[in-house]
Design a protein that fits this description.
Layout (H helix, E strand, L loop, with lengths): L15 H22 L7 H8 L3 H12 L13 H13 L4 H21 L3 H11 L3 H22 L1 E14 L5 E15 L6 E6 L2 E3 L5 E3 L2 E3 L23 E6 L2 E6 L10 E14 L8 E5 L6 E11 L10 E6 L22 E7 L12 H11 L7 E9 L5 E8 L4
Parallel strand pairs: 1-11
Antiparallel strand pairs: 1-2, 2-9, 3-8, 4-5, 6-9, 7-8, 10-15, 11-14, 12-15, 13-14
Helix pairs in contact: 1-3, 1-5, 2-3, 6-7
């Protein structure tokens, strides 16, 4: 008995990923059949090139397409129309039938149909794949896209920096189960690209999670005790920016320090390093399931590289926990810390986490001038020796802005 006239028959919903997978599977099967037809071993691209006169680069790409574990990761290896025509003409000379060559053309037509349906053209497909992330190829494409974004954002906002650094130190508090923390870092080789570019550099504020789950403002003090009262929390020994080049703006729970107008280009390049300390910033152990400790650096400045280092004291309950990297969007959360941790704001940007070792960790960063001295200075201000710490690093080239990259430690209730 058929469906009632007022009912609709369910139609399977197709999506980009499933359409692309089907098309790529078809291309893989067709190219494998084509090479078998001429007696070529697809696992030996050098031999295919030498014996059959197929372009060496194309032979390598065909091998990848046919044998990759994830066939969608090889989308960039598919030949264009001129390359496909040359390949089929070559294979016909070595015995491939017209029927087999037609199946290859049909498979490629099916792929191009998917491209047109979901992305218009192959350039759009590259953007779509890089946004999804996941494969090594998409990571390379995404980095190239982020570099273009860096250049565009530099021109739009009128500022840029070579590197943004965040050094976080977590140590046991003198009281109870709490953690004291310090954050040191800023922008190296920061420059304006136009005279009128005022720029926010650092927020002198901190938040912590209260017992009832609400966010409370923590008391924050400059880590460099020699600065003027009410002045910017500069680490003067490692900064070249003058304090009077910075203006204070009062914000919720603290102060935002902004760079004033000034010279542009290389002659106006400065290093801006800030240091703050907040005691009892959080608990060592989870109060409820899902609690975590984080080392985060909010970024809104176009920069070539981001580096976040977190030094965890060996006596802390999570000293042996391996952190994971997250890149959170701040397009809609920059003024609302309550929303910063919501997972659906996560960006699929691959970030590398490196174990820097322990007792002591390796103090090396070729991009940061006087890095070992800066770490030692920070730890001394916290009253600890480097041999008592384990450290982790998150690195990212051309980080997206505005975003909140972070290292997250899952806490145990034990």
């Amino acid at each position: 008995m058929g469906p009632h006239p007022t009912e609709r028959t369910a139609v399977p919903v197709r999506g980009f990923e499933s359409d692309l997978l089907d098309a790529m599977d078809g291309c893989r099967s067709a190219f494998a059949e084509l090479l078998r037809a001429i007696g070529a071993d697809s696992r030996r691209p050098q031999d295919v090139c030498r014996r059959y006169g197929i372009n060496r680069n194309l032979a390598w790409k065909l091998s990848k397409i046919i044998h990759a574990d994830d066939v969608t990761s090889t989308v960039g290896h598919l030949p264009g129309a001129p390359g496909l025509r040359i390949l089929l003409d070559t294979c016909r000379r070595h015995g491939a039938s017209d029927a087999i060559c037609t199946r290859v053309e049909q498979a490629m037509d099916a792929f191009e149909s998917v491209v047109q349906t979901h992305a218009t053209d192959r350039a759009g497909l590259d953007v779509l794949l890089s946004s999804l992330g996941g494969s090594d190829d998409s990571a390379d494409v995404q980095e190239a896209s982020r570099r273009q974004a860096f250049l565009g954002n530099s021109a739009i906002w009128g500022v840029q920096a070579r590197i943004q650094l965040g050094i976080h130190v977590h140590v046991p508090s003198a009281l109870d189960d709490w953690v004291d923390a310090a954050a040191v870092g800023g922008l190296f080789d920061f420059r304006r690209l136009r005279h009128t570019a005022n720029w926010p550099l650092v927020r002198h504020q901190a938040f912590r999670r209260a017992i009832d789950g609400s966010l409370a403002v923590s008391s924050v003090v400059p880590l460099d005790p020699g600065g003027p009262d009410g002045g910017p929390p500069l680490v003067r020994a490692f900064s070249s920016v003058e304090p009077d080049a910075l203006s204070p703006i009062e914000v919720q729970g603290g102060t935002l320090w902004e760079m004033r107008e000034g010279p542009i280009g290389l002659t106006g390049t400065v290093d801006c390093v800030f240091g703050r300390r907040a005691d009892r910033i959080g608990r060592q152990r989870a109060q409820v399931d899902g609690d975590s400790a984080v080392a985060a650096v909010p970024i809104n400045t176009p920069c070539e590289k981001l580096q976040i280092d977190v030094f965890v004291h060996e006596d802390l309950a999570y000293a042996d926990v391996e952190p994971r990297a997250e890149i959170l969007s701040r397009l809609e959360t920059s003024s609302d810390p309550e929303l910063d941790g919501r997972r659906h704001y996560g960006l699929p940007v691959p970030a590398r986490v490196v174990d820097m070792g322990a007792a002591p960790p390796l103090l090396h960063a070729s991009d940061v001038p006087r890095y070992p001295e800066l770490v030692q200075w920070t730890l001394e201000r916290m009253g600890h020796d480097v041999k008592s710490f384990r450290a982790w690093r998150l690195s990212l080239t051309y980080p997206p802005i505005p975003a909140m990259p972070l290292l997250r430690f899952d806490l145990s209730q034990a």
